[in-house]
Amino acid sequence: FDKLIELIENKKEINNDDSKNTNEKSIEKGESESPNTESIEDLKKSLLTNLDKNYPKSYAEEYKQEIYNTEFFNQKFFFRKSMEDIFNFDKFLLIGGKGTGKTMFYTALDNKDFLKTLQDKADKKTLNYSVVQAISLTEDSEGKKYFQVSNFTQRDAIFYKNFWMIYILNSIIISNNGCLKEYSISTELTELLPQELKASNSAQSQAFFEKIINNNKLYRLIEDELEKIDVYLHEKNINLMVVFDQLDHIVKPIEWTKAVSPLIDYCRSMPYKRIQPKIFVRRDLFDKYIKLTNKNALESKSINLEWSIDEVFAFFFKIVFAYSKKEFFMLMRKYNDFREERISAIQKNIEKQNSYNQIKLDIHWIKSLVTTFFGKYPHKYNSDTLKLSETYDWFYYNLKDSNDTISLRPFLDLIQFAMERAFNNTNEYHPKPILGAFFYDHAEVREKYVDRYFNDLASEEGNEDFRMIIEHIKNSSKFPKEFKQREFNEEKFNQLLTYLLSNQELKLNSKSIEEVEEILRTNGVLLVTYMQRGNKKYSFAYLYKYYLGLKR
Predict the structure, then answer these.
(1) Is 81 within 8 Å of 123 (Cβ atoms)?
(2) Cα 455 → chain centroid
């Protein structure tokens, strides 16, 4: 049907009629006829300059000073449907890969204006929600601290479960969000533990936690206090979300099995009606280090934060509309690739109240925007012999990892490097599209955005072996050419893993070929496909093909 519609819309006589109708409609509406007065070259230059000047930052930490108001929502924050599931009592895990916006979401939840806006979008206006950040990303003067759980050594699951119960109470009590302004901590607790609940990353805090955990009477006081707080919140009709992010700040990834698994187990069975834990966790760490019985059952209690290709494009065009809406739609009409009805429908959709410049995730509309900005096909010339796939598909295929997921960061980096190339190649000019394949499908651009993404992943604690393996494959003159390929049968791939593990130059921390395979798989580099008769095929993600110089 897409093809039929395209054929109909491209009929010359219909386009001619449309142009007449468009002019008549413009006059009827009293619209300016300025689209005919500004050149395509000037419009493109203005749009790309505005986009470059206001390009989104890659890391949530860079938005810490932002004011969460209508302007911020219109220009910089992308509301995703998955975010609305935060209000679902049963869903307590938010899982996503590196660069999916976990920390941005976590940071935003601490803002009351954002929380109210998200409630409105999720149609949860009648409920009262309050948020406590269990982990501060930095130590600050407001008393928001975090404790380095890795200070504990050789403790069992029960110890850590009890620790997290105390930690959650600690976070609620020291929070300044006002949810407990009429609540008084039990006298018995304050007498026994004066001022000790304000834990920080110190030896004193470690002693404090151990003192309570090893004393049944004190530990029982913690349980009682949480139950009383839950009753108080119920009476006040307050839903309290206790949110965790960047657990690798306080627990080394290698220790997650013993220290973080009990947290997830405890939160899964937490008995409270109004205290709701929400845990943001990196997918690779969750898959690799979380060991639980019935782990698959957590699927129904999880929120998937991975991006779809439509969301990625919708976020990008939100930025375009925020700063160059006029120029974009002028160009869209000048290019004359689509009927006026479609262009007007798209424009009205992003201009309606509380849309925040976000287009609805309609694949036909998004493909129309992609065609205008990047061209319909990912190549320089529009020859029928080269129409293998559309640009929309090219981006997905070239950006997805081995888990078929897309991270926002490499997409944004790709466009940014492509724009730099466009600004530096003023002699290479084509009227359409706005930013063509000559710029985004270039070897240098590919090298840059994949390199930045790889370094982002490799910089995480626990990924030291990952860095050494990828850098060795990419740069070492000693790496055997027979392994420089994208796909392997099981025997050949085991030979590659054995080579990596036994290579004295690498000195990997991994002890088995299974561990090496897991490193590549959990970082989205390796896809394992099960074939007939129990055989396996191994493939490197297309994202890394050119970066590592791999052959078919």
Answers:
(1) no
(2) 16
Angle between the N-to-C axes of helices 340-351 and 363-374, in degrees from 0 to 180, rounded to the nearest 10: 100
| Core vs surface per residue 39-69: b (16+ CB within 10 A) or e | ebeebbebbbebbeeeebebebeebeebebe
Radius of gyration of the chain (CA): 27
Give 260's strand partners. Answer: none
Residue 39 pLDDT more than 50? yes
Mean per-residue pLDDT for 87-112? Answer: 91
Looking at residue 13, what is its pLDDT? Answer: 44
State pLDDT tens for residues 371-399.
999 999 887 544 444 456 899 999 999 99
Q: What is the DSSP letter of 449?
A: H
CB atoms within 10 A of CB 523: 24
Cis peptide preceding 277, ω within 30 of 0: no
The percent of residues above 70 in pLDDT, for the chain, comes to: 87
What residues form DSSP beta bridges with 526? 540
195 has a pLDDT exceeding 60: no
Distance (Å, rounded) from C-alpha 426 to C-alpha 444?
17
* Token digits of residue 120: 């409105």
- Measured distance CA(402)–CA(316) in Å, rounded: 23
Is the distance from CB of 349 to CB of 368 less than 8 angstroms?
Answer: no
- Say if CB 496 and CB 485 are below 8 A apart: no
Closest CA to 519 of 462, 444, 439, 453: 462
Q: What is the mean pLDDT of the chain?
A: 85
Concatenated DSSP letters of 68-114: -SHHHHHHT----GGGGGGG-TT--EEEE-TTSSHHHHHHHHT-HHH
Identify which of 342, 346, 327, 328 has the alpha carbon closest to the alpha carbon of residue 22: 342
**Nearest alpha carbon to residue 171 among 205, 138, 136:** 136
Confirm if 77 and 108 have CB atoms less than 8 A apart.
Answer: yes
Looking at residue 92, its pLDDT comes to: 96
Q: Is the pLDDT of residue 369 over 60?
A: yes
Predicted pLDDT at 37: 67
Going edge to edge, which strands form the sheet with 526-530?
487-489, 536-540, 526-530
CA atoms lying within 13 Å on the CB side of residue 496: 26
Phi, psi for 521 (deg, rounded to 5): -70, -45
The answer to whether 356 and 68 are in contact (CB under 8 A) is no
